[in-house]
Amino acid sequence: MGAFTTKVGLIPYIMDQIAELLSRSEELANQSGQSLSTISRKLLKDGKGLARLKNGGQCTLKTIERAFAVLLELERKAGMSAQAPAKTDQGGQLTHLQRLEAQSIHIFREVVASCENPVMLYSVGKDSSVMLHLALKAFYPAKPPFPLLHVDTGWKFKQMIEFRDRKIKQLGLELLVHTNPDGIKQGIGPFSHGSATHTDVMKTQGLRQALDQYKFDAAFGGARRDEEKSRAKERVFSFRNAAHHWDPKNQRPELWSIYNARVAKGESIRVFPLSNWTELDIWQYIYQEQIEIPELYFAAPRPVVERDGTLIMVDDDRMPLKDGEVPQEKMVRFRTLGCYPLTGAVESTATDLTQVIEETLLAKTSERQGRVIDKDGDSTMEQKKREGYF
Amino acid sequence: MPDSSTSQTNVETLMQSGTKKDLLRVLTCGSVDDGKSTLIGRLLFDSQQIYADQMTSLQTDSKKFGTQGPDIDLALLVDGLAAEREQGITIDVAYRFFSTKARKFIIADTPGHEQYTRNMATGASTADLAILLVDARLGLQVQTRRHSYIASLLGIRHVLVAVNKMDLVEFSQRNFNSIEEQYRDFAKDLGFEDITCIPVSALLGDNVTMASQHMTWYRGPTLLQHLEAVEITNPSDETGFRLPVQWVNRPNSGFRGFCGTVAAGQIVPGDEIMVLPSGQRSTVKQIVTMDGDLPIARRHQSVTLTLDDEIAISRGDFICSTDHLAGQSDQFQAHLIWMSEKELFPGRSYLLKTCNSTVAASITSLKYQVDVNDLSHQAAKTLHLNEIGVCNLSLGQAIAFDPYRDNRTTGSFILIDRLSNETVGAGMIDFSLRRASNVVWQDIEISRNKRAAQKQQKPAVLWFTGLSGSGKSTIANLVEKKLYDMGRHTYILDGDNVRHGLNNDLGFTDADRVENIRRVGETAKLMADAGLMVLVSFISPFREERQMARRLMAKGEFIEIFVKTPLEVAEARDVKGLYARARAGEIKNFTGIDSEYQAPTHAEIEVDTVSSPAEQAASQIVDYLKKEGFLDFDETS
Q1: Burial, B452: exposed, middle or buried (Cβ in 10 Å; 0-12, 13-18, 19+)?
Q2: CATH 3.20.20.70 fits B448-627, yes or no
């Protein structure tokens, strides 16, 4: 009995609903210029559905409800519904981090779609961490379809290597580690040969060896244009000749988001997905996405000695101490990570991300200052890059 | 030591403010010595983006290379490469970054040097707004005009004219007003949406970030205020959804995601889409990201879509909203900027790369060259480095596109030299040169190799006629499948497909429709001669042309099949969205709307797609063939 009553009550209700659906659909057709059959197909998955209803056809309550839900969305799109939020109110403008993220993802995918054998250079630092995070996003739910390459100079912080190995295992990615065998044979190191030779042999030449050995035609790097003046002119897709050299005067024009990844055999492209990110963006993104970065970025008591105004951490016993030099335990952290003998620490009490970010943002010293390499001469970075340093 | 809780709050405020900012991309351009680098240096300096160590090295550099005597030279903050320092000019596009509470800015710094048009175009291609520097002493220069034209050509709609070095003209209002007046007059035809003129002194900082004390007559915003407040509108916001498919994500057989960056519009799960060029329809199932499915995807977002149906989609395809399709064509008129030392060779095969595909292309004719100084047109046989021209291009295969004025992402391309792999040109599509843009391709499911495998059969031409959307192609495909299953050798000539190739020089006027059918009839005849069973699926609206085709074939070989679907029904289906566009007046000469269809009176077969499914119509046709002995060929005969 109850069911019967309900049914009797339902029929006029459905009739009213159908009438409303028809009149609103016609209004939408007038406003949006779509034909009634197009709207019908969207509402009822049937181009003739509305016509049938108009001729006295019936449908179930469920169908009507679904049709109204779609209709509301169509009306909103056509700008008809007063209550419906306008496009921009829905956050139509992406934030700058969303824009940067989207651009980086676009770059990753473009390389994978147009290069045969790409690799991602992974240096374990915060920029590499952000780059890895973006690569994971770009190919989700697949894994990034390329290996990671770490050019290990043999002088990286121990904690970097631990972090690297743990992270790679956790993510189930492929990691290639390359250390220049000639350098090992000759016993090249920053203390015995100086920072310039060490960097050239173990880093620059090591990288070239690895790229040649695996025949990579594209290599992702984490460099940013804001890091250093000569990098401000770097392309996102940066062409390198067969000798891995960069010619700043002869770069391919790069327009819109169309990237020319074509190379002849032996030539390659360095790709910088973080080109348009600044240091602040990187920190904001790490904060927003809760990206894990090595402990070395956070202050902790560490044994350091002061040399030429720079605090160097004694990470292992290969570091020869000069007369009178005694490692002192200081609360320090690192703004960039590299070879421990070449990476200056800063005294700090920032032990968590928030504090690190605050210190960083208040700091009036740009981040590469901790790197001994930049000070070698005036146009040093540009020279190194011409020769193939990343 | 910073108190932890305060620090927490500060950073959170900063992080949150950071995530609410949007991004403005700015291009700076001006002649040599207009003071661009100084202006950018000033913006960086005053918005405190300069670190202490950079300041120290700036002081050192100023002594060494500076042009400001004992004062620091802000230009040195931005002049990067060693070679530039020696020459005292910037020689390439450099990108600078700074942010304020309101916005993050990316500045493309491009040189004012005469021979570096290509660099400016590069910087302009991604910029929302152009800052044009004008030296208050010199007024508008040839280069000001050139830069304005290039900015306009590359689709920049917002211009800020910074009348610089006001300190050198005693902050004269008259001087400023006259430059503003001249500029507005000059730029009135360049299509800028808004032009703002601001008197500044980059050297002293007047009206850059702080209101000038010297120019109280000026009541407008400072340069930075304007940059923070200007609202950028994009024509592409108004168009339908576009996802140029960049990469297909197939981690396992259970997942097929189509990846790309949304070039226009927005999409929500459940929306109907059409894939170009295949014309297949489906609906969006999910918008997949690592952070969970999204309820909506908007312009600029890089997303992965899954669809309700398993359809073949690959890199180069466009996923579009069905109510506003992108065009597709293989013949274009475009504006072209030449960027190589080696001149353009019309007729040579270059590679044309768009936002998601690479195809062969050649310049079929160079219509004229644009003199960027006075915008006059000049006849030209080639383009040299930094020259701009208007040309016709022919592509090896059709691409989906929008005109550049509607969408900078889907309307742009670069040209690549096949041998050197250099980027030699950059182009902006004006329009398609043919109606092919309205024609959606059909799948042809049987490969040629299979058809060639055997050929013992009776040739026939099955001529399907009927309105667009009547079901001709669907039925023809089904019939071909059935015949193929029986081991027959077949081929479909489809109206849409033939129009992309053999008949791509034809439009939709009555005269062209006649020629269209004549050629198809001749082709079908050749194929029938070769022993094939040819299925011709054309609207073929006119009785006379169908008769003409009948006369071409051997007696008894021509089978006319009328796919009888009333206009209302065909229009309600509107499989390719063409009726809606014809009704909206976007397509002219559309059969059934404003061009006549003459129904056959003596067709061999009539099929009804209103009351019965396509499958049944196909069976009806195959039954007819059996009855008439077309399938009776056996090995002994």
Answers
A1: exposed
A2: no
